[in-house]
Write a structure and sequence with these properties.
- This protein is of the alpha/beta class and 500 residues long.
- Helices cover 50% and strands 13% of the residues.
- Helix 6 packs across helix 13 and helix 7 packs across helix 8.
- 34% of the residues are buried.
Length: 500
């Protein structure tokens, strides 16, 4: 079997559960929208990371081909043809007249062989560059070259050419039908509409839109079966053979194509709205660094595009000797949004897809971990601090090295002194395990917690209003209480005006 995701165990992927970081990074909102019309099987493929750097690279190169108009159109047409193939099979199973059932079976088979041949021809014309798409082309070539399959295709095409060449001449005069072979003027549906306008909804061609035959259509089938016994004998024999013509793995490949096509289609829509995407440069080297320009939160961009609002993008840079961002600043100043954008950057890079930024360079990470502050749960009965420690445990188990970690507002229920001590230990642990990441906090002291920490701050303008711009800067001691009081109408002057 061949795989465009380079999977060794497809079932393992289908059994994968949605990761916790999906909700923290709002990836569920993004990907459910992107895969909305592609089926549950496609969404599941976004739940598990590629197994290693080579597999990430394999997918990234394929996605580079899929973004080209030639390959994108070829795969999209194949998807459409295969949807028709499945529909014809469903109609065959619902058909009530045996001759009609056989005709739908032939139409299903013809749709399949045509879809395979068209995809092969279109990919040859597109001349893809990636190893994965070239492998797909080779796989298709080997499929159609097998003698058994080639003989099947020849039989299908011959039967279909003969069936589709049949013509019947219907004459309705003096409340009487005359049925004869021949070519009339106009389409069947037009004929029925003109002769029986009040009953048009009851009549449909058995080989076009319905699995039910009217009395008239059954008579037409009888006429053709009587005059073309040899053909219908071959058609019946073809139906009874029930040859398993669908190549092994083709339906799985169809779902894997949906992985690339769904995101490429979504990306095109967002780019048309003015949002930038780029192919990240991902390197598996000892000297790691993160660099991104015009980085933004894709989930927020979707929301803003729907409401005609602008989004603020930011930059990110983590040098090889730097390990962790510690981000402080006023509430609702864009800190969590910035942390999410970094997490999304790493996620989409690991999935071999384009990232929401104008430029991005990231190292290879083995995994992505997130820990976002959540409301205390009455179900566990543990309290918020204990819940946070329980959620931290799997992130801090041995072997979780070379990962990217996103932490948002940890230990908020603890006293400042305790939160500082625990926060420092968390940073020291992850840095010691060769991890990189970002820690969003209201504790400015953590920006100087240990070597390798870089201080970031959410900026405000001269009026102390949030700008949502994140820059390298030392943490400030002020908690921006005046800003929050002004925002909610609680300054002395605002209260005085309200009660005057």
């Amino acid at each position: 079997m061949y795989s465009l995701l380079q999977l060794e165990d497809r079932q393992k992927l289908q059994d994968a559960k949605r990761p916790q970081f999906f909700e923290d990074l709002n990836l569920d909102q993004i990907l459910e929208l992107a895969t909305k019309d592609w089926g549950e099987g496609v969404l599941h493929q976004f739940y598990a990371f590629p197994k290693d750097f080579a597999e990430e690279t394999y997918r990234r190169e394929i996605y580079g081909d899929v973004k080209t108009e030639e390959v994108f159109s070829a795969l999209l047409r194949f998807q459409s043809s295969m949807r028709a193939f499945r529909e014809f099979g469903e109609r065959r199973d619902r058909a009530q007249v045996e001759a009609q059932k056989q005709a739908w079976h032939l139409r299903e088979a013809f749709a399949y062989v045509t879809a395979i041949e068209d995809l092969k021809a279109n990919l040859e014309k597109a001349a893809p560059k990636s190893k994965g798409m070239q492998g797909l082309l080779q796989y298709l070539s080997e499929c159609v070259a097998k003698k058994e399959y080639a003989d099947f295709c020849a039989e299908v095409k011959a039967l279909w050419a003969e069936l589709s060449g049949f013509r019947v001449l219907l004459t309705y005069e003096k409340e009487r039908f005359t049925i004869a072979e021949g070519k009339g003027v106009g389409a069947y549906e037009k004929f029925l509409t003109e002769c029986f306008p009040e009953h048009d909804h009851r009549f449909r061609s058995p080989f076009l839109g319905s699995e039910e035959c009217s009395d008239l259509e059954e008579e037409i089938l009888k006429l053709f079966r009587k005059k073309h016994k040899e053909f219908f004998g071959r058609l019946e024999a073809f139906f009874k053979k029930q040859f398993a013509y669908v190549q092994e793995g083709i339906m799985d490949l169809l779902t894997e194509m949906g992985y690339y096509l769904s995101f490429a289609q979504f990306q095109r829509k967002m780019e048309a709205r003015g949002y930038a995407f780029c192919t990240p440069s991902v390197k598996d080297e000892k000297d790691k660094k993160i660099s991104a320009k015009a980085l933004y939160d894709l989930a927020l961009a979707i929301l803003c595009s729907e409401n005609d609002k602008e989004i603020v993008s930011n930059e990110a840079y983590l040098a090889p000797d730097e390990r962790f961002f510690v981000l402080t600043g006023p509430n609702q100043g864009g800190k969590t949004t910035y942390a999410r954008s970094l997490g999304q950057l790493i996620y989409f890079a690991k999935m071999g897809l384009d990232v929401p930024a104008q430029f991005a360079e990231v190292p290879y990470y083995r995994n992505l971990w997130t820990h976002f502050s959540v409301e205390e749960s009455a179900e566990t009965g543990r309290g918020k601090l204990m819940d946070e420690l329980v959620r931290l445990k799997p992130m801090m188990e041995k072997g979780q090295t070379d990962c990217f970690v996103v932490i948002n507002e940890l230990f908020t229920t603890a006293a400042n002194y305790d939160a500082n001590v625990m926060g420092k230990r968390v940073l020291e642990y992850f840095i010691g395990e060769r991890c990189e990441g970002i820690y969003v906090t209201h504790l400015g002291e953590l920006s100087k917690a240990c070597e390798g920490v870089v201080s970031l701050r959410a900026c405000v303008d001269e009026r102390q209003v949030q700008t949502y711009v994140i820059k390298r800067s030392e943490a400030l001691e002020t908690a921006f209480a005046n800003l929050q009081a002004r925002k909610y109408g609680l300054t002395y002057q605002q209260l005085k005006e309200r009660f005057s």
